Automatic annotation (TrEMBL):
Keywords: Cytoplasm, Initiation factor, Protein biosynthesis. Residues 2-71 form the Translation initiation factor 3 N-terminal domain. PROSITE patterns: IF3. Monomer. Belongs to the IF-3 family. This is Translation initiation factor IF-3. The keyword Protein biosynthesis applies. Its main location: cytoplasm. GO terms for molecular function: ribosome binding; translation initiation factor activity.
Length: 164
């Protein structure tokens, strides 16, 4: 809230240079802001009494936007990379997939290991769980299982994350 939008009876006022001017009525605070040629901006509405500051409102909004951008820039996004396997995968193919998963984990991403079943493979789903167990074992030195293997329709999925 700025200037006339402030409806409180009294506020704690902070001057343009950051000095405390004390508790006063809103009218007096608005007069001081007008004399300085600046705006009266409510900084902390939940405080008792609310805290208002004499500043240039446009500049204040710009600084808030800059802080928000900076916070967004420093934020780390975690992607989920997927590694797809099949029930009749060979040893070397499995090793290649394990190496890919290691690469993803070392970069800080989560890995979704998917075991896809097609046709008659659906009848022997329970026999293929050992593939996911072997996969988890082979990356156990750098990864931990976040979500255990779970059957969802035609796929069995497991999530891995980097060890802390």
């Amino acid at each position: 809230m700025i200037n006339e939008q402030i409806r409180d009876k009294e506020v704690r006022l902070i001057g343009a240079n950051g000095e405390q001017l004390g508790i006063m009525s809103v009218r007096d605070a608005q007069k001081q802001a007008m004399e300085a040629g600046l705006d009266l901006v409510k900084i902390a509405p939940t405080a008792k009494p609310p805290v208002c500051k004499i500043i240039d409102y446009g500049k204040y909004r710009y600084e808030l936007a800059q802080k928000e951008k900076e916070a967004k820039r420093k934020q780390k996004t975690i992607e989920i990379k997927e590694v797809r396997l099949s029930p009749n995968i060979e040893e070397n193919d499995l090793n290649t997939k394990v190496n890919n998963a290691r690469k993803f984990l070392s970069k800080g991403n989560k890995v979704k290991v998917t075991l896809r079943f097609r046709g008659r493979e659906m009848a022997h789903m329970y026999k293929s769980k050992h593939i996911l167990d072997e996969f988890a074992e082979s990356v156990a030195d750098i990864a931990v299982i976040e979500k255990a293997p779970k059957v969802e329709g035609r796929t069995m999925t497991m999530y891995l994350t980097e060890k802390r």
